[in-house]
């Protein structure tokens, strides 16, 4: 080693390795995850945070997609509590929300969610990830096929790919367009949170697509609209009553 060259300690190398691993798991998109929580008084001064909390409450109280998922998680032994399992935070500009499996917490990007219908979709999408985390041994960090499966289910069942949403994105299609949308959005989600090639993401999605696209739990159907979601919620409640009488 030449004079003036700094030697890196094993501890420093280990910290750098851990940082790289965290980046690989998408935490770079959620910078507030590692910050000390702000006091209620400080948070109350920020309009984004207030608006996020109000929209979240509206979703949990009135949206049938979210209500069905909350009921399903409760029956699976994973009761969701607003203050514990949701966190409104500032995020990178490319994401609207995320599921932190390490803390079993849903992150809502208060700086990127601007209207109620968007909040409804984000909460539903992330609750599907939480439901999968509750009911199955999902290896979110090391098995890209597990991640792909949950992303397929979230895109398929959350309303992300409804006709109106696709029209708003200026995307139009005929037969099979819903499946195409689900596939594309699942691939995009993987690429947003994992440092993998597009080919790797596409391969993972394609290998599990049929099985995961057809896994409709807990909805029992693809809810293409809020009306569909209400029917699915009613059917879910009736199914539970029937099972209770067996």
Describe this structure in words.
- It is a single chain.
- By secondary structure, the protein is mainly alpha-helical.
- It has 2 domains: 24-137, Zincin-like (2-Layer Sandwich); 139-222, no CATH class.
- 59% of the residues lie in helices and 5% in strands.
- The chain is globular, with a radius of gyration of 20 Å.
- Residues 1-8 have low confidence and may be disordered.
- One of its GO terms (molecular function) is metalloendopeptidase activity.
Tell me the major beta sheet.
3 strands, mixed
Low-confidence blocks of residues: 1-8
CATH architecture of the largest domain: 2-Layer Sandwich
- Share in β-strands: 5-15%
Q: Please trace the helix and strand order, writing H or E for each element.
A: HHHHHEEEHHHHHH
Please identify the top-level CATH class of the largest domain.
Alpha Beta
Number of domains: 2
Q: The CATH topology of the largest domain, please?
A: Zincin-like
Derived from helix and strand composition plus strand pairing, the structural class reads: mainly alpha
**Total number of helices:** 11
CA distance, first residue to last residue = 76 Å
Describe the global form.
globular
Structure summary, number of beta strands: 3
The helicity comes to 55-70%
Q: For the largest beta sheet, what order do the strands appear in spatially?
A: 1-3-2
The whole-number mean of residue pLDDT values reads 83
Q: What's the gyration radius in Å?
A: 20 Å
Biased composition (Low complexity): 1-11
GO molecular function, one term: metalloendopeptidase activity
Enzyme class: hydrolase
Region (Disordered): 1-31
